[in-house]
Amino acid sequence: MKTEAKLVLKPRFLGWMSVFPIAINSVIGGVGMLAFGFFANHITNGGIPIPIKIAFGLAFILFVFAIPFVAYVLKKNTYSQTEYRLFDDRLEYAEGFLNVENKSIGFDNIQEISMTRGIIQKKYGLGTIILKTAGQGPNAGVCMSGILRIPRTSTKP
């Protein structure tokens, strides 16, 4: 007999803010490639062949536009496919887009629960809930990122 989930949580995708670190890294790499191309052209007095100049330009376009765009699409699809289902005795989740991970964690196996909120997450009322279980490594628990803050209900009469 299958029971229904008591609560289903889906992470919220914040668009380009979700891939901002990847985009910044990529732009820095692209600008570095372009600067290296200009420097190499300068020290050889313009002696770099046209195909190599084109290759530096294409590398710049790849780093500045293509990599952040692909990261955006992959992350958006991953967020849309991710779901956390809370039952009376366990948490089940399906996470991923290209590589889907399904996992079930019994509440009796959870040893530590913490929540972090970054600057951007605070602005949108989101947070990251970290559930740690026994063991070591990346599979010892679950990190639920981009979860909408649920307001507490008052218990006063």
> Could you give the order of the helices and strands?
EHHEEEEHEE
User: In which range does the helix fraction lie?
Assistant: 25-40%
Give me the Rg, rounded. Answer: 22 Å
Which percent band covers the strand fraction? 25-35%
Distance between the termini: 37 Å
Low-confidence parts lasting 5 or more residues at pLDDT below 50?
none
Count of DSSP-assigned helices: 3
Structural account:
With 157 residues, this protein is an alpha+beta fold. It has two domains: 7-12 and 87-148, no CATH class; 15-78. Helices cover 39% and strands 27% of the residues. A four-stranded antiparallel beta sheet has the order 1-2-3-4. A three-stranded antiparallel beta sheet has the order 5-6-7. It is elongated and about 70 Å long.
Gist?
This protein is α+β, with helices and mostly antiparallel strands. The protein folds into two domains: 7-12 and 87-148, no CATH class; 15-78. 39% of the residues lie in helices and 27% in strands.
Label this structure with key terms:
four-stranded antiparallel sheet; 157 residues; three-stranded antiparallel sheet; alpha+beta
What's the layout of helices and strands?
Elements: E1 7-9, H1 20-43, H2 50-81, E2 83-86, E3 90-95, E4 101-106, E5 110-116, H3 119-123, E6 126-133, E7 141-148
Antiparallel strand pairs: 1-2, 2-3, 3-4, 5-6, 6-7
Helix pairs in contact: 1-2
